[in-house]
Amino acid sequence: MSTNVPAAINAAKVYVDGSNEVTGIAEVTLPELKFMVAEIEGFDIAGKIEEPIIGSTDVMDLVMKFSAINGDISNINDQQAHTFHLRAAQQHIDSATGNAVLKGLKVDIKGKVKEFKGGTVKAGEKTETEIVISCLAYKVTLDGKEIINIDKLGFKSSINGVDQAKRFQSLLS
Questions:
Q1: 123, 110, 93: which is closest to 149 by C-alpha?
Q2: Which CATH code fits 4-41+48-138?
Q3: What is the CA radius of gyration of the chain?
Q4: Where do the domains of the chain lie?
Q5: Rounded to an integer, what distance in angstroms lies between the CA atom of residue 33 and that of residue 61?
Q6: Per-residue confidence at 110, pLDDT binned at 50, 70, 90?
Q7: 3-class DSSP state of 88
Q8: What is the three-class DSSP state of 167?
Q9: Where are the beta strands (DSSP E) in 22-144?
Q10: Which pLDDT tens digit goes with each residue over 17-36?
Q11: pTM for the full predicted model
Q12: What's the pLDDT score for residue 28?
């Protein structure tokens, strides 16, 4: 049976609010998906445990590092919510043939800038300017398959196509 082994990102671009390409990006760190937990202890438990809360995620941040300060940074550093679209060509290796297989990676994030780090100004060097986005929504699609779809304000928490929040929403009406 043939499987695709992930190898590398060939190329990537980031767009903001649909069509404007963000230039000068050196690196993007995607949000960490961490579920909120309740710490439980009691007579029936030998110590403490953390129980992940269904459908509830902790704070998520997107980090974009830039080679230098540019106009694109000032356009998104305005305390308003923006939608960021990362598009990447991801190379895999077909385990049966050894040939390269390309897959599309789409990451869509809605959020607001919460940190701006200007970086260091030094002759002949990058400033390594950094922007941290506090995420309100986070969606990851690989080769057409939805992997993650979190919308905090829309109360959606879907992992591999299963909306975890729907598991308890019917109990609320």
A1: 110
A2: 4.10.410
A3: 20
A4: 4-41+48-138
A5: 9
A6: very high
A7: strand
A8: helix
A9: 25-29, 35-41, 48-57, 61-66, 82-94, 100-117, 129-142
A10: 987 888 888 899 999 999 99
A11: 0.88
A12: 95
